[in-house]
Amino acid sequence: MTKNLLETSKIKKSFNHKNGLIKIFDNVNLKIKRGELIALIGPSGSGKSSLLNILSLIDTPTSGKVIFEGKDVTKINENEKSEIRKRKISMIFQGNNLLSDFTCIENVLMPLVIRGEEINKSKKKAQKVLKDVNLNNRHEHFPNELSGGEQQRVAIARSLIAETDLILADEPTGNLDYKTSNEIFSYFIRLKKMNKAIIFATHNRELANKADYKLSISEGNIKRVNAKPAKRI
Amino acid sequence: MFSKVERLISSRNLKPKKKEGFLKVISTFSFLGIMLGVAILIIVMSVMNGFRTDLTNKILGLNPHIIIEPNGNYIDNNFEKKIKKKYENIYISRTFSGEGVVLTRGNAKGVLIKGANYNTSKEFNFLRKSITNGSYNDFKEGTALIGVELAYSLGLSIGDKINITSTTFINTPLGGVPKQENYKISGIFNSGFFEYDKNVIFLTLKDTMSIFDKTEKDLNLEIYLKEPLKADRYKNEIIDMKEDFYIYSWSDLNKSFFSALKVERNVMFIILTLIIIVAAFNIISGLTILIKNKTKEIAILKTMGLTNNSIVKSFFLTGLTIGFLATVTGIILGVIFSIYIEQIRIFFSSVFNLEIFPSDVYLLDKMPSEINFFSIVIIFLFSLLTTALASYFPSKAISRMDTTKALKYD
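Predict the joint structure of the above. Result:
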């Protein structure tokens, strides 16, 4: 039996608002294995980003547990969470997910510099990764000099160089055209082949259908959807 | 202290992009403010140090550094020899000073009469240089040296005769009368000290002993040191040797004057440090805007696993770098200005046709300036501490930032 990379156990998330308690989701139980490509679908405001924030440990659930590599990480301190994110988790957002003051290559090598690796050594690795994502001629360009697709490829290059086991992407193709979206998705397939677990939130049905399975989030409930009839999880 | 990534982020913060023009203006103003504050502080402190040193040199030139009065006892030669043996680099002379009244052409003025042993040049070097009218060589028994202000107020000039009445009484058939004698003015000195030039008269030691009716055993011991600024230490050591005498130093005599100078200097320091403090507020506003502008980037760095502490440190380093560079530039500017202050004064005087720092008002022929290393260190540390505090508080706010909200920030 394959060991789960990430598990959630009975997690709930709610916010206090002046109009009362807003429940985002209730009793979410997930089991994510290495090499899985999962699409997170649901209408806007359904809680896709909130779930990804909890899974990436930048937010905490109101109750329940998040278990990463068999260890309950819900109650660990911020520095320990940062350490897990540094080594194990990458995030890709819809847009503006690059550091605007840094060039393309610096954005890519940043995860390695954060880990304390030598800048020159990291630069060599970053050059190689940028070549892999067809951005060989964009090393010294700043994010505002790149197209949306190129920016997303830089973000993917950042995940590639970090060699993290879990990649969380929040509507990574939201601002992109059909062709570029497919191109970005092809990189996810590549990451999957590298035995990485990828969870991506999307409104794009076509891309969602290409995932191993879908997690549909609606009105606080999450359902696993795949080729087979929908099954409540 | 700062990791590679912290230094890298900080270095980028220091290069604001075109769209962050307002931030650049604030950073420039905070840099200029701190730089000017530090430079002005160093210049003012140097001028005040120089002023103090000039005045001290004048006081030390005019007065003995330590005075030992017999206080009813007798200062014998053995005690003098003992002091000479203990301290090799000192000069000792026996003399006497007392109060009296100068009478001339219907005018009278109370003065301090100082006995001068004119055979020994050392104690009179300063006086010799200060004579502006007449000659020091004519100073002998039966003559007097008076200050320029006293000469002016009594309408006296070289060769005039004055009558000096001492506080010593002599018995006459008509009863006790104060002792008085006539002296010819052989020289007029200008020490640059108004009070000194108006109130002090020099007679030869023999004439002084005569007018005060004193003998050898009444004479004071006046000590001149190679390091007059250490007079109080020497004084205390001499007191330990013999407590019967009344012993005091030049700083005891001018305590209130130097206290006033010190108070003035400290007040100036406090007032001028306010410039640095005000300039440091620009760092606070600059960093606050920078952090606001970089909210999304900060959140992205957190998602990559950079700790709150590292992000706080990198923004703190940004503010501290501005403060450090401004402080160092200010120190360089202040030191150069202090070194060439006289040339700068002459330049501005000629350009604007103005007499800046007129010598007849300030009694100093040039702008005094003395750079004090200790003052610079204090100013450097103060400026650095102020900018460190100004950088710390806005940076600290990052640790309270909600990453999930920050990720949505545009």
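The domain at 37-61+83-232 of chain A is CATH 3.40.50.300 (Rossmann fold).
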